[in-house]
Amino acid sequence: MDKDEILKKSREENKDRDFVEEAVLATANALSLGVGMVVCGLLSVLSAIFRDGPDYSVWTVMWAIHASTFLFKYHKLHKRHELILGLFYGALCVFFFVLYLRRTLGVF
Fold first, then answer.
1. CB atoms within 10 A of CB 66
2. pTM for the whole thing?
3. Per-residue model confidence (pLDDT) at position 17
């Protein structure tokens, strides 16, 4: 096999995937989730200082993002820890949504 045949076979196997781009996107995703957590924390602290309590709505959104990320990873990779984290973050999303409804709308 010559060099061109090996490259052609590799492209067919990998379907022209760009592994560098995939690694960059994975790192960017992890970084953006971390930044989101910091921003939610900052907004909650500022809300607690300048208003009468923390803002639960930002945490509802943040945990929903985390839950959907991990549940999608479970769907594609079938790794048990991704499912456990996805369900845990989903439960946190529901918990903070209930707190939001209780505080904002007086429900529950």
1. 20
2. 0.79
3. 75
Length of the chain: 108
| Environment class of 36 (CB within 10 Å of its CB; exposed 0-12, middle 13-18, buried 19+) | middle
CB–CB of 63/96 below 8 Å?
yes
In 1-108, alpha helices (H): 3-14, 19-50, 56-77, 80-100
Amino acid 4: pLDDT: 79
In a 10 Å sphere around its CB, with 0-12 CB exposed, 13-18 middle and 19+ buried, how is residue 67 labelled?
buried
Cα separation, 3 vs 66, whole angstroms: 43
Give the integer Cα–Cα distance in Å for 12 and 61. Answer: 40
- 10-residue block means of pLDDT along the chain (108 residues)? 76 76 91 95 94 92 96 96 97 96 86
